[in-house]
Amino acid sequence: MNLGQTISSRRPGAARFDILAVPGLSHFLLWKHSRTAVQIVLFALAAIMVVDGLMGSQLAARNTATVGAWVHYRGFIVLALLLAGNLFCAGCPFILPRKLARWIGKPTRRWPKVFRNKWLALAGLLGILFVYELYDLWSSPWLTAWVIVAYFVTAFVLEMLFTRDSFCMYVCPLGTFNFLYSTVSPLQITNRSMDVCKSCVGKDCINGRWDAQDNLIQQGCQLELYVPQLNSNMDCTLCLDCAKACPHDNVALVTRPPGDELFRQSWPNRLDLALLAIIAACVGLVNAFAMTPPVYQLEQWLAVALNTDQEVFVLGLIFITGAVLLPLALVYGGAWLNQRFVPGNRARSLARLIMRHAYAFVPLGFGIWASHYLFHLLIGPLTLIPALQTFFANVVGVPLLGEPNVLLGAAWVPPIAVIQGIQMLTMAAGIGGAWLVTWNAAARAHKDRNDRLREFLPWALILLLIGALAIWVFLLPMEMRGNVLA
Ligand code: SF4
Ligand code: SF4
Fold it and tell me: pLDDT of 418-455, one tens digit each?
């Protein structure tokens, strides 16, 4: 294999701006303890949320656990992914205790081969969204605090047992969400010079940098991503260990056209990633639908039809059907049409055709999640202030930010027409991006224009159907969860 050619075809677009070359900023980012410093700040915020959730006011709009987790964290996550990249994983507080875990004992086990994929993480993502809905986590500071604690404990135990960043790579639902949607982000790790990489002996970016006495000075990429071959943001936590370890100062964090890698189809032959992209988009739709009035009518109708008063069954059925079964039926149906009516596809399996077009579900899914999370953030951008006031006054006993005034949370809210306008623009961009990606996939596969069109049409309709359903949901009255206006 000609390494140089393979890599140059994978590199992000030519017009690149290197964030790690910005004086001052690069100094901080490449500082040995930069990640730990950010993690400590986020860890302190998480600690406040846990203490407040367990001991503070149990009114959702007055508690930092519910407001922080379900309004601000989610809103800022989509903004960060859109404007920069996977910034949450870069400063993730959940893996700060990993340092403690590794002091207690050095893990020796590799993550089991059978689980080295995204199936567990996908199940975790579905599970956490289902639990959120079933137990109304958004309205319970106490339960939210325990979810955060459970997250820390799981990360701690798995990091103590397994080498590399197994928890991030194979388990963490939040990280999986970030990995998936950072594929639309405008920044990516790459190298500055391929020639330097080719002549590099130690490959410290992945192996780590060691001194003459065989002591590790700087660890390399714990997610086993090799910078010269990196062609995707998938699995990159933006930890910058590679940049800190490279002895030749040859790692860059460069700009690229947003979603560039989706057009380059950078993760082929991965059914787990393909179904992750598809199901993540559809569970986003179900998650938003669950906050609108028709879901209650549907639940009541199902409860009567199934003769049950157990919400777990009714909601479970809605989740499984809406987020898994119907999407699978749709994409296998689309792939079957492609196989049946496009001559060049006769020998292709349905799974291969789904993998070819799954990239298109990333911009669509991101549009759905961003429209949803930005709604909650924009409808209550200041709700964190009274929640912090209440925490300091009631839990700490020092009114650091003044006496609690819950009305401050509603002091500034953009007009609802503006918020809905932003949601519609986001959805239009998501659907438009999805169509471009799926057309690109058809065009890469077929020279003949008619074949391209025949392949494109079923996917364009499926994407439009899901996008139109999401627009319908966003135009319905939506619960203002965790918001003082509610
Ligand atoms: S350590 Fe630096 S120079 Fe060596 S392969 Fe990695 S990025 Fe390239
Ligand atoms: S490539 Fe690896 S070491 Fe570099 S930023 Fe991404 S996850 Fe970190």
Answer: 999 999 999 999 999 999 999 999 999 999 999 999 99
* pLDDT tens string 136-185: 999 999 999 999 999 999 998 998 889 888 999 999 999 999 999 999 99
What are the extents of the domains in the chain? 3-262, 270-475
175 within 8 A of 89, measured Cβ to Cβ: yes
Greatest Cα pair distance in the chain: 73
CA of 225 to the centre of ligand 2 (A): 7
Q: Is 242 in the pocket of ligand 2 (CB under 6 A)?
A: yes
Q: Which burial class, exposed, middle or buried, applies to 464 when counting CB atoms under 10 A from its CB (0-12, 13-18, 19+)?
A: middle
* Ligand 1 neighbour 462 (Cβ under 6 A): no
- CA distance linking residue 40 with residue 34, whole number of Å: 10
Q: Could you give the CA distance from residue 395 to residue 303 in angstroms, rounded to a whole number?
A: 41
Which CA distances in Å does 246 have to 30, 169, 191, 437, 448? 11, 22, 10, 34, 46
* CA–CA dist 181, 179 (Å, integer): 6
d(CA 302, CA 308): 8
> How do 209-210 and 187-191 pair as beta strands?
unpaired
> Ligand 2: distance of its center to the CA of 226 in Å?
8
Compute, in angstroms, the gap from residue 50 CA to the centroid of ligand 2. 29
What is the model's pTM? 0.93
- The phi, psi pair for 447, rounded to 5°, reads -85, -35
Q: Which ligand is nearest to the CA of 248?
A: 1
